[in-house]
Amino acid sequence: MPSLFIDAERLRDLNSGLGQVCLHLGHELVRRRPDSRDGEPWNLTFLVPRGKSGVFGDSVSYIEASWRRKIWIPGQYDVWHCLHQDSVYLPRRSQSAKLMLTIYDLNFLERADYSEAKKARRIAHLQRKINRASLLTAGSAFTASVVKEHLHVPKTLPLKVVYTGVAVNPNNTPVDLPAGSPIAQFTQSSFFLFVGVIHPKKNVHTLLPLLEAFPDYRLVLAGPDRHSYAQHIREQAEKLGVADRLLMTGAVDEATKLWLYAHCEAFLFPSLTEGFGLPVAEAMTFGKPVFTSKLTSLPEVGGKEAYYFENFEPESMAKIVHDGLHDFGQNPLREDRLRRRAAGFSWPSVAKEYWKLYEELIGLSPI
How far apart, in Å, do the first and last CA atoms of the chain sit? Predict the structure, then answer.
């Protein structure tokens, strides 16, 4: 029977996008596992962090890894799927597995804090992986175009776009936050929400002037804030006199994130570069008005249902938000259309697409 190895080691950080991808995709791949031609189900082996064996049930096998050191993976597999391009776990030369490599973004190419030499080293490292791959997938059409622009992808090497899934909002209110939580206290008034790492590429400093334009609103920035850019945001908020209406929560757990989506008035995402834009899709599952940039992959996610910043000038952004909130309030169908749009990025459909590709790789169906 066919065997599949899946690198889900990034489960070690469930508050990250990759951690959530590993969790939701892993569960859905198990649920949708097909039978092979001889009627036996595929053998699945997951690489997981220490202590995570069993996370996908007892019908699959597990190999535990430590992020502190690389381990050798035993066994023979028909398909080996690296769920992200930075994986350090590749099949050995003696293993005959067909390698599938998923590339979510090449955002490092836009990082001002990376030297050209460092970018070149990362490109060369990724190229070596591509040279070993039997199939590539990209998290968006935009990412696929960037891969083709900066890396050599032979014409004989398939490159498929497989969008990231998003967990469907069940339309029930998430568990209430603790009464003494700073978030619960701060969000008693109407608030705008941003979710993501606080980093220059997310462009969140452009949101601060909106607090001047909307004096009755507060702003929550939910995400890891260890980068020096976070301190810049705090200082700018002080200069603008809006620091008392800004809350930077740091990294939040999944339940808190869902609570914030459910209770915000609108979701703001002025990011400069994305491989997909998962927070946009997540906010849409709650039927919330989404205001985002029109850069990189974001229009692929928001489609016609999102509102787009034309530029990042304060007056222009404030007008887009003002007009968008008015339009959203006047159009009762907008909320349902947003939910339907988000439902197109479902984990069941993603898993179905990946199973199709796994079967194609071992000749059960044509690529």
Answer: 20
How far apart are the C-alpha atoms of 276 and 229, rounded to whole Å? 22
- CA nearest neighbour of 302 among 320, 318, 315: 320
Q: What is the pLDDT of residue 72?
A: 83
User: What is the rounded CA–CA span in Å between residue 229 and residue 207?
Assistant: 14
CATH 3.40.50.720 fits 182-343, yes or no: no
Record the tokens describing residue 321, joined without a space.
């938000």
- Architecture of the 3-165+346-361 domain: 3-Layer(aba) Sandwich (3.40)
How many residues are given for the chain? 367
What whole-number distance in Å separates Cα of residue 112 and Cα of residue 137? 27
Residue range 284-319, pLDDT digits in tens: 999 999 999 999 999 999 999 999 999 999 999 999
CATH code 3.40.50.2000 region(s) in the chain: 3-165+346-361, 182-343
Cβ neighbours of residue 325 under 8 Å, at least 6 residues apart? 265, 266, 289
- The answer to whether 297 and 275 have CB atoms below 8 angstroms apart is yes
3-state secondary structure (DSSP) of residue 262: helix
Task: Classify the C-alpha dihedral 166-221-273-316 as positive or negative.
Answer: positive
pLDDT (tens digit, 9 = 90+) per residue, 152-168? 999 999 999 999 999 76
Say if CB 205 and CB 199 are below 8 A apart.
no
Give the amino acid at 267: F
Q: pLDDT tens, 189-237?
A: 999 999 999 999 999 999 999 999 999 999 999 999 999 999 999 999 9
Higher pLDDT, residue 325 or 184: 325
* Concatenated DSSP letters of 16-37: SHHHHHHHHHHHHHHHTPPB-T
Q: Tokens 């008034």 label which residue?
A: 189
